[in-house]
Amino acid sequence: MKIRKAIIPAAGLGTRVLPASKSCPKEMLNIVDKPAIQYIVEEAVKAGITDILIITNRGKGVIEDHFDHSFELEAQLRAKGRNDTADELAALANLANIYYIRQKETKGLGHAVLQAKEFVGNEPFAVLYGDDVIIGEDPAIAQLCRASEKYEKSAVCIKEVPTELVKKYCSLKVEKLEENVYGVSDMIEKPKEEEIFSNFAILGRCVLTPDIFDILSRIPYGAGGELQLTDAMREIAVKEGMVGVDFTGIRYDMGNKLGIMKANVEVALNHKEIGEDFKDYLKELVGGL
Ligand code: UTP
Question: For tag attachment on the chain, is the N or C end more exposed, with fewer CB atoms within 10 Å?
Answer without folding.
Answer: C
